[in-house]
């Protein structure tokens, strides 16, 4: 197959795997910056339409429905993986098609195990860049997304970070280069474990944090996560859970986390990357996390793949 993203000399060849809420937004930001990303999709589409804080990006895109269609369009210089964490293994064929020995692979997923999750699916030495995604995006149809807040990803500072950030110059996406990415990732995990966990069990949106008891519970959950994070090198101040909660309560706008949306829709959720991980990593350091254990167990039991208890 003839390459369609074989941009002008000196312009990066880019690909997005998993064009859902986040993947479509990243593809749109690449288009906004003048690139022509190709897309690997489970549900292919022809047009991208992403509304963001500064306007809208609409474009005809090259979107494949199977890795076997990629041909000369891969490997690329920079690939972006935006399937949900539990969908990574099923996306392995796309990684084979788009990721070569000199590709930088940006992992746009929640949690703190980006590198460990991807290493089994790429060759040794592939440049893996983990990203913390702060980008409240909601899908309409395939390729159609509304971003309802600021659009930012945080990646580690360094040559790879510069390479990725350079792609988005002049686009609506802000790329933050962090000197302490581990801490950034654990802060996000504190929020996800507490806010996403409680809202999943309550099957509700973030307005739950107008409730005083829910607020106290969330702070206690975050304190456990912070203790685990510190054991893994994150620098998390003791008053951070209170400060995060103040911020979450102030933003209690009715936004529903993607894990809650997936639970209500009856499809598998990212429970392991967002909650299970806290318990697994705590156990390795002998840290007791009873609230996170309870949240994780109850969310796991509600997964569609888990047989009902006998
Ligand atoms: N959405 C947010 O606001 C937000 C904010 C921060 C972080 N995040 C994180 O960002 C990551 C992506 O989340 P998301 O909300 O963008 O999820 P999403 O909307 O569900 O998108 C996932 C996309 O991957 C596609 N996909 C799944 N399996 C695939 C496969 N085997 N091959 C190709 N494509 C496949 C899905 O296809 P279908 O179209 O067929 O479903 C979908 O388009 C998650 O880790 C999430 O936690 C999301």
Main sheet?
A: 8 strands, mixed
The computed structural class is alpha/beta
- The total beta strand count reads 12
| Strand composition percent | 15-25%
CATH arch. level architecture of the largest domain:
3-Layer(aba) Sandwich
The CATH topology of the largest domain:
Rossmann fold
The ligands bound in this entry are: NADP nicotinamide-adenine-dinucleotide phosphate
Low-confidence stretches: none
Q: What is the ordering of alpha helices and beta strands?
A: EHEEEEEHEHEEEEHEHHHHHH
Form type: globular
Mean model confidence by pLDDT: 93
CATH superfamily of the largest domain: NAD(P)-binding Rossmann-like Domain
- What percentage of residues falls in helices of 4 or more residues? 25-40%
Helix count, DSSP H or I runs of 4 or more residues: 10
The CATH C-level name of the largest domain is Alpha Beta
Q: In total, how many domains does the architecture comprise?
A: 2
The whole-angstrom Rg is 19 Å
**Sequence of strands across the biggest β-sheet:** 5-2-1-6-7-8-11-12
The end-to-end distance, rounded to whole angstroms, is 53 Å
């Amino acid at each position: 197959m003839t390459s369609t993203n074989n941009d002008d000399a000196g312009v990066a060849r880019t690909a997005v795997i998993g064009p859902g809420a986040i993947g479509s937004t990243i593809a749109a930001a690449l288009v906004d910056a003048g690139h022509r990303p190709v897309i690997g999709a489970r549900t292919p589409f022809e047009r991208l339409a992403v509304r963001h804080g500064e306007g809208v990006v609409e474009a005809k895109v090259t979107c494949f429905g199977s890795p076997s269609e990629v041909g000369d369009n891969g490997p690329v210089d920079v690939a972006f993986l935006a399937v949900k964490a539990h969908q990574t293994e099923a996306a392995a064929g796309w990684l084979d098609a788009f990721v070569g020995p000199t590709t930088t692979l940006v992992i746009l997923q929640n949690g703190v195990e980006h590198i460990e999750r991807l290493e089994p699916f790429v060759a040794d030495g592939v440049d893996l860049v983990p990203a913390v995604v702060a980008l409240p995006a909601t899908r309409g149809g395939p390729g159609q997304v509304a971003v309802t807040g600021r659009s930012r990803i945080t990646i580690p500072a360094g040559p790879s970070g510069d390479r990725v950030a350079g792609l988005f110059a002049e686009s609506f996406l802000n790329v933050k280069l962090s000197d302490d990415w581990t801490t950034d990732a654990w802060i996000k995990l504190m929020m996800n474990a507490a806010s996403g966990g409680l809202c999943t069990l309550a099957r509700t949106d973030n307005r739950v944090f107008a409730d005083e008891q829910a607020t106290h519970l969330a702070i206690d959950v975050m304190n456990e996560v912070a203790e685990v994070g510190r054991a893994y090198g994150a620098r998390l101040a003791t008053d951070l859970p209170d400060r995060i909660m103040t911020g979450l309560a102030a933003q209690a706008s009715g936004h529903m986390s993607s894990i809650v949306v997936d639970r209500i829709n009856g499809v598998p959720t990212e429970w392991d990357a967002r909650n299970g991980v806290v318990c697994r990593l705590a156990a390795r350091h002998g840290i007791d996390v009873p609230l996170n254990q309870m949240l994780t167990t109850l969310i796991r039991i509600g997964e569609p793949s888990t047989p009902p208890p006998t």
